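Entry 14. Structure prediction run on the chain below.
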Amino acid sequence: MRKPKAATNMVRSVTVGLVVIGLFVVGNHVWAQSNVIAPSPHIFRVKASGCPVAPEDHIQSGFRVQDQVGIVTALHGVLGCDTLVAEAGGGEKIYDELIIGQVDIRHDIAILWSDALAVDRLDGLAPIAKPASGEQDERYQIIGYPLGLATQQVTDDVQIAERAPLGNLLDDAALVAIADRDSPGIDIDVFALQTPLVPSYSGAPLVNRAGEVVGVGNSGLDLDRAEVGWAIPWDAIQLQTIARVVSSQVSWSDFRALTLLRNSPSAAIFHYDREAEATPEPPAVAAAVNLQILDEGLGANTYFVVGDDHAAVAVGDELIVLAEPIPGTEVAIALLRVTGKSPTALTAQAVLGHPQLAIRARMRVDNNLDYLSGSQLVPVYSYAAGYLLREGLVRLRPDHTSSTGDWLQVLQLERIDGEVIDALPTDTVMEITGLGREGQVAVVKLVSGSWPSNGAIVSQFVPPTPTPTATATATKTSPPPPTATATSTATPAPTVGQQVCAFSFLVLDYQRTNPIRGATVSVILGTQQDTGNTDSNGFYQSKLPCQGSQPAEARVRIFADGYISHSSRVYLLDETKVIFLDS
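Output returned:
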């Protein structure tokens, strides 16, 4: 069975770039004042054995806090492991038969419980009373068992660079990998540390000069030799109990989420012991349909697709074209939309394409959109800014100009006579909340609408400016109610070089020619968009900044309760276009 190269490359690139949990720098660097100290009995060496993801046996750190039962550690290192044992600093206490009693999945935190811990005194480190300021002149320590050492180590002079969304610290490959787990969540705020982290510092306490816990060591990156590490802020952790009683059996309250995490091969990104174990092959993706490219079609970006299973595919379905740049390893190079069907073949039009690999005859075609999750495609339409990789992630085209805080709008492809000729805006709008360090993958959240299917194309969206309150003089520019004359007299059209292009519409009932009040009108000119409602005369005017040097061309879409929606291109400036809606 062939394996999707996108997934393989994602895991491998993340493994190379992801240096996990610790404060150790290799190469020409040294430990940042890391020393053996008098061991704290409240900081633990946690040994996990029989874990579902390699390495099956590993070490990480943990600690206790005052007035709380259990040992705090990182969820990713203990989830699904057969045996968990914690040894206190100095070896005075050993807790075995540990189970996961509480979790915060989004912040990758677990609390380990046992019968012995339940009856122990509630001693431990003091948590900070208020959120850490993270000011540049403050210094912190992280204490634990880096690289699985048997003795506690302390790293001094740890600085918090900023408190920022995790996604902003990741390269694009790591962003996709961790987003697929959603533990830790890519949109959570973390402490970006100026000191890198290494394995086995997972779950180690980050403490201030007063010895108070301000965070939990979680992960680190090595990006082009500019090391980045982060910790989970203590004040952000929100625990939920998943064990009803302290016993050897765990009753999951969030079984599905934890099961998916436990069985996910993406957990390998958190281990960096041996490359062979840290880069497991992803599971093979089963072929869903037996199809292949026959030849190029008659229209632009169209192709004929044939195969035994073509009868099971319908017009409007989406297909993935797969290539083998490395023999035996497949990679998605295009997303096709089926536009026509005959007894022997399908006609499909490319929506996304690969910047280097062309579609050729006999390439395999599948309808499994999972291949898109790690793809690096580009929309074939120049007006599209990117496409949805999965919920919460958008891959942007290489020449994009988007930044954090910008909005994106999902586009719906429109077909005429079987050919995709346009992409019209939908009510699904997303806001970019973060960008990977390479700038090609954006973390997004919904502003309106619902998540579309993977591969949906998006464009830049400018939120509409609130319409000023009408004044007495504003009524002078309104058109008269419709009469026997169907269209208004055209005024000379200005060129695009002018600052504003005014598009006016008169929306009428097709049967009765009455004005339709309150119809929603959406006008798009380049990357600008304006949305509003018709007045009591059925009139709406949109004024948008003009762009370029060609005659202005806008796209308009109109919705009204009880009527069929309308969409078209508009070339008229400073002229009222009459549009009839049929019920």
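The longest strand covers residues 419-435.
Filed with the rest of this week's runs.
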